[in-house]
Amino acid sequence: MNALPRPSTIFLAAITTLVAVLLYSPLFVPIVSSFFTISQGNVDWSSPTLSTYAALAENHDILAALRTTLIVGVCTVILSVVSGTLLALYYHGRRSGRSFLQFIIFLPFLMPPIISGLALLIFFREIGLERSLLTVVIGHTVFVLAIVYRTVLMRLQSMSRTLVEASYDLGATGWQTFWRIILPNLSSAMVGGAILAFALSFDETMITILVTGTQSTLPVRLWAMMRLGFSPDINALVALILMFTVLLCVLAARFLIPRQMATERT
Amino acid sequence: MTENTDLLTLRSVSKSYGPVPVLHDIDLSIRDGEFLTVLGPSGSGKTTVLRLIGGLEPLTSGEIHLDGQDISRMPINRRPFNTVFQDYALFPHMTVSGNVGYGLSVRHVRRKEIARRVAEALELVQLGRFADRFPAQLSGGQRQRVALARALICQPRLILLDEPLAALDLELRRQMQEFLKSIQREIKTTFLFVTHDQEEAIGMADRICVMQAGHIRQLGTPHELYYKPNCEFVARFFGENNLVAGKLGPVQGEQRPIETALGRLVCSISGQPHLKAAADGASAFAAFRPEALHLANGEDSGNRFSGTIADLAFAGSSTVATITAGANGAAQRLRLRVPSRIDGSALKSGETVSLSFAPHEGHLVLA
Ligand SMILES: Nc1ncnc2c1ncn2[C@@H]1O[C@H](COP(=O)(O)OP(=O)(O)OP(=O)(O)O)[C@@H](O)[C@H]1O
Ligand SMILES: [Mg+2]
């Protein structure tokens, strides 16, 4: 199998390890340091503690921001999954207008966020929509729609057209075919898309800053806190967010990687 | 009795995809209970015929009648036909029994009844043990049988199969051919079976419908197609054949001579009135099978010519000789099939031999 001679294998392994350490170790610093206190600007390594986490639980500003983020995330997910799926279903197999629609959907995702944010801001002002959580949700949905649309469309395209034909052929109505054949085959793509959408919404900062009203989401709050210097509970917060994000990614991967699930189940 | 009543009739059915005509004025009657095979080269429109009957595709013109009633506009989910798709189209998120029971459950059959009939259908295709597996956990042949059970369970009047065996290897194919045939005998349902494999067609069909370029060239039993092809295409497409071009001579009872580069060949025209009616001097082909051709001996009547053996190919029980015959300017390549002999064939490459075939073993096709 492995055609490489031994020394080069070892060399490759060393390089890979080094790169991995350089790339990923910064991620672990806040996690580790979140278990220690900081006094006079220096980390006190002598006694591990959970006090930073306790402090975080006391910080009502941050907790409020977290709640806002979750509300925005959930609303964004619902909106983007429903509309992304509908768009994908509508445009699947349709030639005319599809590339134009895709262009429109992908534009906000590809453009620099500050441009999308400004465009939305101007738009909201023109139609007289007050800046609020609603505008944030709309902004996030516009931003993440591309991901959901793309994920669902790809699943639709990989789904054999004969599945739908077979369903009709066996006597099912259009409605039955949708609920019993199309939707179950899309569901894992929809869940995967939803998780990605949530993760994107969770740490979206630029657009949020521009279109939000008085309430701020977690990243915006962090941004503001950082200007005032670090406090130890930020480490705890970052550690929590990191763990949460990793969890989301693992989940997303599970739903999006084509399923051999049936085979692996036994 | 039921054998001869028509179940389904296509009346001058045409189909175009956009501006491209794919089927031209097809007329076809499918008899109740028969195993009808649609045979033709790739792109001849076989799948299209199946999709039109199944209702997966609208007709461009013409009508389809079921028991004498026009069903051309009946939606696909109300037609009493079921299809076995080439890629099986099993629902990946449902178990085998979920797949097989789907046709009943969308019709709101009671759960108990579904369970009973699913078990029955799986028994019929010998998959009882696999009821709780997912399609991804089955072999190709097993998936095939699930697809069949799923189509059978709705008790359709007609089962449409689009090259269902194409994806299987040779051995499995043979088994499935027998299996399909035995199931068809057991449930006495009409099968419309598409294939481009003529051996498969000959082995399974009660009747074969040969298609080419969107036309039906001939419809008949395998025997009829083999011995009485009605056109050059069928004569060449269906089995090995020798075709020699020439001009028809005057009718002599049930036979008719044809003047060819190999001389005057007399062929049978019995039971083929259109050959009797053709004008003298009309272009036609004399057609005779490699196994009808033999080395001439003293008693042969007519249809004698000489040729040179260009090549010999051993094919197990028989040996096929490629022969060049006729005058230099109009040399014909012919095939001769003789039983193989253990001490090597009596034929030698490069040898000049005298050949003949009996008039009743030759036939004519109009050019
Ligand atoms: N959806 C379509 N749009 C346009 N042309 C089509 C479509 N489906 C089939 N055709 C054309 O119609 C002709 C007949 O196709 P069909 O699939 O019926 O052939 P077939 O006999 O089943 O061939 P094969 O043995 O390769 O399956 C082909 O020339 C094909 O290119
Ligand atoms: Mg085909």
Describe the structure.
The complex is a heterodimer of chains A (266) and B (367). Chain A has 266 residues and is mostly helical. Chain A has a domain at 60-230: MetI-like (MetI-like fold, Orthogonal Bundle), CATH 1.10.3720.10. Chain A has twelve helices and two strands, in the order H-E-E-H-H-H-H-H-H-H-H-H-H-H. Chain A has helices at 6-33, 51-58, 60-91, 98-110, 113-126, 133-158, 161-169, 174-203, 206-211, 218-227, 232-256, 261-265; strands spanning 37-39, 42-44. In chain A, helix 8 (174-203) packs antiparallel against helix 11. Chain A is globular and about 75 Å long. Chain A starts with 5 loop residues before the first helix and ends with a helix. Chain B has two domains: 6-227, 3-Layer(aba) Sandwich (Rossmann fold); 240-366, Nucleic acid-binding proteins (OB fold (Dihydrolipoamide Acetyltransferase, E2P)), CATH 2.40.50. Chain B is α+β, with helices and mostly antiparallel strands and 367 residues long. In chain B, strand 4 and strand 5 form a beta hairpin. In chain B, the strands form four sheets. In chain B, strands 6-7-8-3-9-10 form a six-stranded mixed sheet, sandwiched between helices. The model of chain B has no long low-confidence stretch (mean pLDDT 88). In chain B, helix 2 (96-105) crosses helix 3, helix 2 runs parallel beside helix 4 and helix 3 (111-124) crosses helix 4 (140-152). The chains are: A mainly alpha (266), B alpha+beta (367). Bound molecules: adenosine-5'-triphosphate and magnesium ion. Magnesium ion (MG) binds at residues 46-47 of chain B.
